[in-house]
Amino acid sequence: MFDHSQNRSGPLIRGLYLITESPGRRPEAAWFDIIEAALASGVSVLQFRDKSENRETRRRLAAALRDLCGDYGVSFIVNDDIELALETSADGVHLGRDDCGIAEARGRLGARALIGVSCYDDLARAEDAEAKGADYVAFGRFFPSRTKPVAPGAGTDVLQRARQALTIPRVAIGGIDLTNASSVIEAGADAVAVIGAVFDSPDPAATVRRFLALFGG
């Protein structure tokens, strides 16, 4: 069993976990404005997710987001890409089913890095991830999702079981918005991960505050 007490100190993963939408969906300045408004309103983690092939642009955006997160004391996570996380001094990386293992990520990024793992609807995968040193796990998708429309669905029962089985934070992801977030929080999610609920909101800052209120914050 990995000793999490020896891992990094930092903000508990709780509340709103914001994942960036594709940078190409809107003008770059507007993209950054939304992110900064969300960070200023209480987002606890920002994950940079960009599947484009332009490495230099991805590095530039990630470095800018890292600095912005530093200004607000928010943990900055890179999706999938350990090299990019290293190049931009990110706080950690989020790993999916087809990415490298936790041990490799920990070896490359160090003991203080935040490592998250996607566990879909699989509690056994989450238990294994915790034993191997993951700092948090993500379950889902729980609702229809524009980002991953064909991803396997998950039921809230996996969060209920995970609450009893795990000691690391549990993040719910997939189609979550203000109309349905309470159901996954009540089932055992420590944080909810969103994209469109914030990026498509006419008032991202107010939306973040409304999410936080669901956690009693």
CATH architecture: Alpha-Beta Barrel
Q: Which homologous superfamily in CATH is the superfamily?
A: Aldolase class I
Distance between the termini: 32 Å
User: Biggest β-sheet: count, sense, barrel?
Assistant: 8 strands, parallel, barrel
| Estimated structural class | alpha/beta
Strand content: 15-25%
Instruction: State the share of residues found in helices, binned by percent.
Output: 25-40%
- Radius of gyration (Å): 16 Å
Shape: globular
Tally of structural domains: 1
Say how many strands there are: 8
Average per-residue pLDDT, rounded, comes to: 92
Low-confidence stretches: 1-11
Name of the level-1 CATH class: Alpha Beta
What's the total helix number? 9
What do we call the CATH topology? TIM Barrel
Identify the strand order in the major beta sheet: 1-2-3-4-5-6-7-8
Output the helix-strand order.
EHEHEHEHEHEHEHEHH
Describe the structure.
The chain is an alpha/beta fold. The chain has one domain (4-214): Alpha-Beta Barrel (TIM Barrel). 39% of the residues lie in helices and 17% in strands. Strands 1-2-3-4-5-6-7-8 form an 8-stranded parallel beta barrel, surrounded by 6 helices. α1 (28-40) runs parallel beside α2 and α1 packs parallel to α9 (204-214). Mean pLDDT is 92; it is low at 1-11.
Summarize this, please?
By secondary structure, the chain is an alpha/beta fold. It has helices at 28-40, 55-72, 82-87, 102-109, 123-131, 157-165, 181-187, 196-199, 204-214, and strands spanning 15-19, 45-48, 75-79, 92-95, 114-120, 136-139, 170-173, 191-194.
